[in-house]
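Weekly sync, protein design subgroup
Attendees: M.S., D.O., the rotation student, P.L. (late)

Item 1: inverse folding check
M.S. brought a backbone from last month's batch and wanted to see whether the design step gives back something sensible before we order anything. D.O. pointed out we never logged the input encoding, so this time it goes straight into the notes. Structure tokens as presented (249 positions):
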């Protein structure tokens, strides 16, 4: 469980201002969703946490300590990072893929692979399988198990559910939320899907052109709060829900 603080973080790529002076506090143990259209700066902001992106100015702090202060490998050991096209090593079994995370972190395997499979709700017999013998959803669960292998307490998810079919997406989303609650993680979920954010997060932040333009709870958003930019995104799942409601009438 770790708090994350962004303090006036700015990042440019040439003429593009990807992150425009973001200041934000993510409480330890909270589940925050970062929502916005493509190109709004979500991935860039997320990557400043594990130092895949270095801000031009400003700071990112984990538990009050600047992420730039120590060596990057030690920082990344405490952070699970899962992205859409997570690469499993195709020539290694599921168990070997998960064990790599442990080895990098210098943690002895000693039964942890089985434990991690349980954690992401995969049957233990998938341990001996190769990645191409798994479904997309199962592969993504292995990716999460590997990301958590070192005992990370901060979980960064970048469109981690994006490539999955809706049913798998729903069940993996629920599994991630359960994992967050059970392990007491701090989770930052990046998504372009407002419905996903509303269903999983405690707090929803909307990004637009490198800035946070809305910060509200799912309950506030559903009741019409959070401002115009947020409501423009809420309108999509709302319209779908209303249509479904009409069908059942
Ligand atoms: P999102 O994840 O919300 O889609 P990104 O953080 O990926 O947005 O991108 C924000 C902006 O920064 C976009 O305009 C994108 O084109 C630009 N950008 C992101 N990464 C790079 C990069 N490595 N080089 C140049 N421009 C980049
Ligand atoms: Mg992105």
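Designed sequence read out in the meeting:
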């Amino acid at each position: 469980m770790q708090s994350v603080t962004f303090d006036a973080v700015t990042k440019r790529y040439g003429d593009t201002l990807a992150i425009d002076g973001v200041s934000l506090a993510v409480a330890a143990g909270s589940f925050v969703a970062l929502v916005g259209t493509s190109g709004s700066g979500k991935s860039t902001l997320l990557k400043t946490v594990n130092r895949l992106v270095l801000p031009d100015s400003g700071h990112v702090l984990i538990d009050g300590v600047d992420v730039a202060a120590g060596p990057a490998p030690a920082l990344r050991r405490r952070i699970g990072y899962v992205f859409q096209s997570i690469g499993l090593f195709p020539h290694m079994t599921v168990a070997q893929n998960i064990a790599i995370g442990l080895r990098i972190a210098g943690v002895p395997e000693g039964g942890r692979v089985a434990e991690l499979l349980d954690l992401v709700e995969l049957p233990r017999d998938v341990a001996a399988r190769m990645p191409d013998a798994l479904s997309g959803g199962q592969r993504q669960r292995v990716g999460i198990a590997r990301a958590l292998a070192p005992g990370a307490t901060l979980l960064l998810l970048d469109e981690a559910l994006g490539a999955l079919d809706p049913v798998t997406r729903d069940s993996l989303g629920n599994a991630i939320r359960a994992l967050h609650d059970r392990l007491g993680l701090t989770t930052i979920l990046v998504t372009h899907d407002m419905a996903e954010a509303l269903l999983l997060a405690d707090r929803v932040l909307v990004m637009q052109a490198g800035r946070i333009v809305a910060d509200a709870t799912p309950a506030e958003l559903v009741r019409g709060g959070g401002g115009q930019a947020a409501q423009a995104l809420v309108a999509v799942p709302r319209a779908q829900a209303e249509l479904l409601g009409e069908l059942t009438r």
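Discussion: The first helix runs from residue 42 to 47. Residues 1-78+154-214 form a domain with the Rossmann fold fold (CATH 3.40.50.300).
Action: P.L. to compare against the previous round before Friday.
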